[in-house]
Amino acid sequence: MQDGDAIISEHMYSTDFSLYKDALVDTWRYRYAKRAIDITFSLIMIAAFALPGLVIAIAIGATSSGPVFYREKRIGRGGRLFRIWKFRSMHRNAAQKARIADTEGGAKILEWRMHKHLRDPRITKIGGFLRKWSLDELPQLLNVLTGDMALIGPRPIVEAEAVLYGKLISAYMSVTPGLSGLWQVSGRSHIDYDKRAKLDAQYVRTWSLSTDFMILLRTIPAVLRRIGAS
């Protein structure tokens, strides 16, 4: 049996995320080898992108009002909630800017979250550039360093998206969410939630260090070709 085989049918979806804390991929390779790789690479990448990150921060502050960074709750391994780091790519008054009615705002925002190629009026001009090249996600290297995220894994989701995974949410919660993953390199925003959930479950079922390495290699050309980016 592969590391993730028993995880996928372990739980049906529940809003009590603590139920998933025992359904974890927890081999020594995942717990120690993968973590060592994450720490090493995140430190190297933080050092490499320090200067570009400073330029991005200055550009954000100079072109729109609001903080440079944006933090939002996401679902992590075992159902634990954590706050993700991103460069702010939206207007400070994003909801008002988009003129979203309270009755339809949630559904519309989920549509924009999943289909990033759609025009989202909440996004600033510099934010559109950052998203196109996935530069807004660079601060998530801090999440990788602290252990809330990994370099490779399912992309972290918000609580409202969990129900869209159905019973496959247990697969998502069995591993640490990643900076990149199968969804990221397989079409990203052009893939619906059903396919995305299946890709995450496939990743869990077949996880290995070599799988992570192959996804990492595929991430670079995917970003350069802007596959599924806004």
Notes on the protein architecture:
This protein has 11 helices and 4 strands. β1 (69-75) and β2 form a beta hairpin. The protein has 230 residues and is mainly alpha-helical. It is globular, with a radius of gyration of 17 Å. α1 (28-48) crosses α6. It has one domain (17-224). The model is unreliable at 1-13 (pLDDT under 50). 48% of the residues lie in helices and 9% in strands. The strands form 2 sheets. Strands 1-2 form a two-stranded antiparallel sheet.
Shape assignment: globular
Q: What order do the strands of the largest sheet run in, or round the barrel if closed?
A: 1-2
Strand content: 5-15%
- Count every helix, treating DSSP H or I runs of 4 or more residues as helices: 11
Ranges where pLDDT stays below 50 over 5 or more residues in a row are: 1-13
Name the assembly state: single chain
Q: SSE string, helix = H, strand = E?
A: HHEEHHHHEHHEHHH
Q: What distance lies between the first and last C-alpha atoms, to the nearest angstrom?
A: 39 Å
Structural class: mainly alpha
Reported for the largest beta sheet, the result is: 2 strands, antiparallel
Percent helix: 40-55%
Average pLDDT reading: 82
Please describe the topology of this protein.
Layout: H1 28-48, H2 50-63, E1 69-75, E2 81-87, H3 94-98, H4 102-114, H5 125-132, H6 140-146, E3 150-152, H7 159-162, H8 169-173, E4 178-180, H9 182-185, H10 193-205, H11 209-224
Parallel strand pairs: 3-4
Antiparallel strand pairs: 1-2
